[in-house]
Amino acid sequence: MKILKYLSILFLSHLLMHFPIQHLVSLGLLQEGINNSHLKLGWDIYTVGIFYYLVIFFPFFEETSFRLFLKPTKNRLLFGVSFLSTLIVYLISSHYIDLDSQRFIYTSLTILLSVSLFILLNKKLNVSSQWQSRINSKYLLIASSVGFALVHYGVYFSSHIVLFSFIPLIKHFFSGLIFGIIRIRHGFRYGLLLHSSNNLLAFLAIFFKSTVLT
How many domains does the chain divide into? Predict the structure, then answer.
């Protein structure tokens, strides 16, 4: 029931942002990027890859990168830093390398690299336990939500006017806040479940549009 409640909040926040964003698209102030409307899904292996990508890989990777450390410990912080570092490398690489044909291999290598980096940092860094008492959880939640929004910059929409490019990120910021609140109040697995459920609904919407409405 908690998941349904927060899914409803996410849906409403996305719906509120949908209309102003589409209005900006109609005016030519925003252009669609790697948008859902460009994905054509069917009963094939490509669709299985997109499912893995949207519902499993990215929810796990993003929750680990941006929200695992919202209840801070040394290991959670280093794990988050490791996954975030490799996530940034992965996202930058995706602009120069065609990842679609080798999606599973690249994502598996990214996870392996993240774990390796965590092991290395854990051995090399000596983090004092006193830092935990200095962290303001509200600021940490806001910072993680801002970071979560920024990694989606230009992914779904872009604009020749930089200011307009940031408008679609508002919904990702609020999504990050909701995922973060769930992680803090109910634990990491519930935040991950909510994120995966949210992406699953998006996947089903794209799949329905591609297979039934076309």
Answer: 1
